[in-house]
From TrEMBL:
This is Integrase catalytic domain-containing protein. InterPro entries: HTH-like_dom (IPR025948), Integrase_cat-core (IPR001584), RNaseH-like_sf (IPR012337), RNaseH_sf (IPR036397), Transpos_IS3 (IPR048020), Transposase_IS3/IS150/IS904 (IPR050900). Residues 117-284 form the Integrase catalytic domain. It comes from Oceanobacillus chungangensis. Transmembrane segments: none annotated. Involved in the transposition of the insertion sequence. Pfam families: HTH_21 (PF13276), rve (PF00665), rve_2 (PF13333). PROSITE patterns: INTEGRASE (PS50994). One of its GO terms (biological process) is DNA integration. It comes from the Bacteria. NCBIfam families: transpos_IS3 (NF033516). One of its GO terms (molecular function) is nucleic acid binding. SUPFAM superfamilies: Ribonuclease H-like (SSF53098).
Length: 288
């Protein structure tokens, strides 16, 4: 551009004076012209990734996804671009009341075998479970009971119902016991709170008959089951808080979709950027 101006007999300084553009600004744009052009493509990729992950990923996770695609980029630049584009997670608005299933000692209260040791290198060795409540449109409520493997954070079974009946916990337990039977290489421990479901004779007997250790949090001590509480927090922040209330059936469908996405696609830093299922699959292939 500067060369063409010179050939025509105009001085760059005079043109910039007429345009009201500082010379330093002109040289900055000339120097960064190619880089700005590449940023346009990068912005499109970042926008596509943000939409792909349902607007649930912040700049750190987007940076990891970019690196998976072969882009060597600093997280600070991703933060700057996302801020410029207005790409920000905003699903942190409404809080829901915590469901409390404790009704005193109505059955067997097991000791705390887990004692806040929430990690294990062995699949299906340590499982945690709990019940959480969602408010739906109108007067309806939804209750979710998942069972999570502390090995990779995977939800291996779950049940959703309109009421917190005993079946809410027994159905996913039956499914989990089949998985344990077919895949577990070490004796399993299932940890819960002291809710009446987990004190119930059917729950206790099912664990004993399948040689599964039972473990319980101390009374009114949420931190003893922090991994399960953490999952509930992530789930509600990413697909429930800040959204309009919907019917029971619609919310049930959204939760089912989210849990599948969480297991198969949502990357976790402590799993080397893999999703829970990817981590389990790669680990089993390496061991084979």
């Amino acid at each position: 551009m500067a060369f063409e101006l010179k050939e025509e007999g105009f001085r760059l300084k005079d043109i910039l004076l007429v345009l009201g553009m500082p010379e330093a600004t002109y040289h900055y744009h000339v120097r960064n012209f190619g880089r700005e052009d590449s940023d346009i493509e990068l912005k499109e990729i970042i926008t596509d990734l943000f939409k792909k992950f349902h607007e649930r990923y912040g700049y750190k996770r987007i940076t990891k996804e970019l690196k998976k695609l072969g882009h060597q980029i600093n997280h600070k630049k991703v933060y700057r671009i996302m801020r410029e584009l207005g790409l920000k997670c905003v699903k942190f608005m409404r809080k829901s009341r915590k469901y409390n299933s404790y009704k005193g000692k109505v059955g067997k209260v097991a000791k705390n075998r887990l004692t806040r040791r929430f990690s294990t290198p062995i699949p299906l060795q340590k499982l945690v479970t709990d019940i959480t409540e969602f408010k739906c449109l109108g007067e309806e409520k939804l209750y979710l009971n998942p069972i999570l493997d502390l090995y990779n954070g995977e939800i291996i079974a779950y049940e959703i119902k309109k009421r917190p009946t005993l079946d809410l916990v027994m159905e996913p337990l039956k499914e989990t016991l089949e998985i344990i039977k077919n895949r577990a290489s070490f004796r399993t421990t299932i940890h819960s709170d002291q809710g009446w479901h987990y004190q119930h004779n059917k729950w206790v007997r099912a664990l004993k008959e399948n040689k599964v250790f039972q473990s319980m949090s101390r009374k009114a001590t949420c931190a003893d089951n922090a991994s399960m509480e953490n999952f509930f927090g992530i789930l509600k922040q990413e697909m429930y808080y800040g959204e309009e209330l919907v019917s029971y059936e619609e919310l049930k469908s959204r939760i089912e979709e989210y849990i599948h996405w969480y297991n198969h696609e949502r990357s976790k830093e402590k799993l080397a950027g893999l999703s829970p299922v990817e981590y389990r699959t790669q680990s089993s292939q390496s061991a084979a």
